[in-house]
Specification:
The chain is mostly helical. Helices cover 47% and strands 7% of the residues. It has a three-stranded antiparallel β-sheet with strand order 2-1-3. The longest helix is centred in the last third of the chain and has 18 residues. The protein is rod-shaped and about 100 Å long. The chain starts with a helix and ends with a helix.
Length: 202
């Protein structure tokens, strides 16, 4: 066998095996190359570096789904429309809907709040909603109210969310602070927690 061809064969075997290469002469007089030592190939020719096999480690953190994958089919376009129309984050609209109604368009509270974003009839009328049971109108109206609150409170997210729950009057009476209502005190961190997890990370 020619030296160049032999060298090429040795490289191929060594690369494929990532281990030792043994050689010998067969009974027919042919050169034998093997990655395993046996009766014929019993002379160590190349001791290639062994590559350690990585042991897979179980992931410590399970992959999380994007917030929009949790939105029932049909509602996402309305959230997108409201976000673009009123220039507020989709994640904020999502957080409010999730806490207010858990995406139940027929939700109705004991106080009379209606639909996905739990609009009170007076608030719905104030912002031009004629049918709070219509998901699109409900999301657009609730988002319009959020935009108004953001402007009113100088983009203070805590006060905006508090006012969405308790009314802007209650926030003003509390000295532009979260009112000392147990429901509102639970509501604000819950909405903001969902929002912070859902919003794009920069």
């Amino acid at each position: 066998m020619k030296p160049v061809l032999l060298a090429c064969l040795l490289c191929v075997v060594a690369h494929a095996a990532n281990a030792q290469v043994y050689t010998g002469i067969s009974a027919e007089g042919s050169i034998v190359l093997s990655s395993n030592e046996d009766e014929t190939a019993n002379t160590l020719l190349i001791e290639a570096e062994k590559i350690p096999i990585a042991v897979p480690i179980a992931a410590a953190i399970e992959p999380t789904l994007a917030w929009d994958s949790k939105v029932p089919a049909g509602f996402l376009p309305f959230i997108q429309e409201a976000s673009e129309t009123y220039q507020i984050p989709k994640a904020l609209i999502h957080a409010v809907i999730l806490v207010e109604s858990n995406y139940n368009p027929r939700a109705y509270s004991s106080k009379g709040a209606q639909g996905l974003m739990q609009l009170m009839p007076a608030t719905a009328k104030r912002f031009g909603n004629s049918n709070s049971w219509d998901p699109r109108q409900n999301i657009l109206t609730g988002s319009k109210y959020l935009r108004w609150l953001l402007d009113y409170f100088g983009d203070d997210l805590e006060l905006t969310v508090a006012a969405y729950n308790a009314g802007e009057g209650a926030v003003m009476q509390a000295g532009r602070k979260i009112p000392k209502f147990s429901e509102t005190e639970r509501y604000v961190p819950k909405v903001l927690s969902i929002y912070n997890k859902a919003k794009p990370q920069t």
